[in-house]
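Subgroup meeting minutes
Present: P.N., E.W., G.H.
Scribe: E.W.

1. P.N. recapped why we're keeping a running log of single-chain structure predictions: easier to compare across weeks, and new members can see raw inputs and outputs side by side.
2. G.H. added today's entry (175 aa).
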Amino acid sequence: MVAAAVILPRRINTPWQSLVKDSKQLSPARRELLFHHIREIAVAVGIGSADCEVVDARGIIKATQLAMKLAVEQLSPPPDTLLIDYMYLPGVKLPQKGITNGDSLCFSIACASIIAKVTRDRLMMELDKAYPGYGLARHKGYGTREHLDCLGQLGPSPIHRQSFKPVKDIIQRIV
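Output recorded in log:
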């Protein structure tokens, strides 16, 4: 689980800003391009993560909140207010606004989404080298047919979430 937080200048006037949207709606090449532009203009960028063990132990929502909290804690200068895609961060003593579909509706949330997605995709490419045969560089760890086929052939690796249903099913068959 990877999350990002960004603080942007109050006024932005760039030729690329109209290209920013929910990271899931952008091609990998477009995300990479925007990642660099966002990093160039951002006042601050923070990235937090929670590994598979944290996700398995705490659940996806709590792991997401932890990753977001870690990202926010890296921001320097600290933010005045948090605009967050959909959720609230307990234990963070800042004004917060959870915006449903925030990565589609809010420029700063979309920018953070792009930073997080590119960071995660890069991590998956590195993990592909450490765990060859799973195709992580191609499917980025998402539950694609290819990924599920690789799991069926190779079994889960140490980086696979045991709480992910296909992994859980494979483990139950082995035991």
